[in-house]
Hints:
- With about 80 residues, this protein is mostly helical.
- The protein has two domains: about 1-30; about 35-80, Irregular (High-Potential Iron-Sulfur Protein, Chain A).
- The protein is about 35% helix and about 5% strand.
- The protein has one helix at about 5-30; strands spanning about 60, 65.
- Strands 1-2 form a two-stranded antiparallel ribbon.
- The termini are far apart.
- About 15% of the residues are buried.
- The model has no long low-confidence stretch (mean pLDDT about 80).
Amino acid sequence: MIDAKSTSTRRSVVKAAGCALALLGLSATGARAKSSQSSVAYRSSPRGRERCANCAYFISPRACSAVRGAVSPNGWCDIWSG
Length: 82
């Protein structure tokens, strides 16, 4: 038989885990602040094959989910991610 105290504790753990997952979900959907172009050393020319157009953060036609302001598809910065 399960006593009331262990049921209450188990319920608290499950509830806390659910809240933690919800908070992680909120931060992953855009609560992150964008960086300035100067802080990521943005430039309007590519670095070899690395360019904004093939970066994971690029939003066509001229935006970035991690950097403020317009960016060139042929640009590049320190946080480029393939």
